[in-house]
Amino acid sequence: MKIAILGGDGFCGWPAALHLSDQGHEVVIVDNLSRRLIDDELGAQSLTPIRPLTERLRAWTETTGKTIGHVHLDVAQDYAGLLDFLTTERPDAVVHFAEQRAAPYSMKSSRTKRYTVDNNVNATHNVLAAIVEADQDIHVVHLGTMGVYGYGTAGMKIPEGYLDVEIPHEGQENIETQILYPTNPGSIYHMTKSLDQLLFAFYAKNDRVRITDLHQGIIWGTNTAQTLLDERLINRFDYDGDYGTVLNRFLMQAAVGYPLTVHGTGGQTRAFIHVQDMVRCVELALDNPPETGDRVMILNQMTETHRVRDLAELVGRISGATVEMVPNPRQESAENDLHVSNDTFLDLGLQPTTLSEGLLMEVEDTARKYAHRADLAKIPATSLWNRRTQAGIPASM
Ligand code: NAD
Ligand code: USQ
């Protein structure tokens, strides 16, 4: 397959590009390097020493003899460039990672809120409109989020995107149908992913664009089989208060001797997946496209759920780190349960990497190895969700 990876310089896109290239696919990365500019804006750098994209690509060719192309393009702003790219390159599939993905960054200010909405919604819409205008049958695989569902499901197992409902019908039998699972986003970032869902539903229905939307949980881990081949291929590792995700932050904090920053009571339950399983899921999704447009294929891309305080306890146990309950900067439920159906990927053969296998290795091989690069001042989460959290009132929904 010829595959365009939009956002292929990022934390998920880079290992996905290498994995697909390694599998023999022809891969082209499209990225405007905005994530690297945000690193500069925040004064925060990846814990791991990521190399410039051109050097990464050269290292891939030197190491494996394979080539990955690169087009510097803003998918959200340069519609003509995107259309030209699709018309010229004619990819079989587009994997769309090219969005601003940090919830805390999206909640920092009206500027970052507006940037996140403009960038994410336009990027997704441009991809869909350009595919229709280019008149090509390109399979779109989008990286969405578990967070579109919201996290309070009253014990119900979240189905893969669609909910069976029975609607009362005056005096007649109830109508049985399926609807998109109602969204309940908890940040501007998660809201853009909810808006993406509607764009996908529309373009599938109206233009029969074939779309797979992967509702992904929080990624943990850093490297994959390919990014480990040469240090110049290393993946990024975010640990700062905006972009660092919870488990990787805990691993890094354990490595540098910083008390693990549990928000509030740590009662939030979230879905997780290892970065190596993420790249495999993307491959499985590409290999199993929906046959027709009409309806978006939605898959839950996660392998385990964990409560934040349990994760902190686990990381503390294997590393000796201490735990500190800090005031929650976010507006979110203090406690929630989460049950998720991930049957499709398991049926397609995914064999999950479990926390119990990979966690210690992650602390030793990545977090401790690069601990000397850490800037501890960047650890605290300073993005406050609203006037309540700014006033120090404990978060509750
Ligand atoms: P990232 O910020 O590391 O990578 C995103 C990449 O897209 C960056 O290289 C950035 O430069 C590029 N980009 C952003 N806007 C662009 C634009 N307009 N034009 C061209 N390139 C653009 O993020 P990530 O962690 O790799 O996440 C990728 C996708 O996966 C996101 O859409 C995110 O919502 C989703 N996701 C990530 C996680 C996670 O834990 N990291 C979990 C669930 C879902
Ligand atoms: N948390 C802590 N301490 C920390 C950091 C986070 O307790 O130091 C808590 C947060 O309050 C939250 C939970 O951990 O309750 C998860 O936070 P996170 O930053 O790891 O994850 P989130 O903001 O949801 O975003 C991340 C990715 C996003 C992706 C999402 C998947 O940045 O791109 O969409 O995970 S999901 O959470 O399933 O929606």
UniProtKB/TrEMBL annotation:
Designated name of the protein: NAD-dependent epimerase/dehydratase family protein
Top-level taxonomic group: Bacteria
Pfam family, one: Epimerase
Residues covered by the NAD-dependent epimerase/dehydratase domain: 3-291
PANTHER family: DTDP-D-GLUCOSE 4,6-DEHYDRATASE-RELATED
InterPro entries hit by this protein: Epimerase_deHydtase (IPR001509), NAD(P)-bd_dom_sf (IPR036291)
Family the UniProt entry places it in: Belongs to the NAD(P)-dependent epimerase/dehydratase family.
Cross-referenced Gene3D superfamilies: NAD(P)-binding Rossmann-like Domain, UDP-galactose 4-epimerase, domain 1
Signal sequence, renumbered to the chain: none
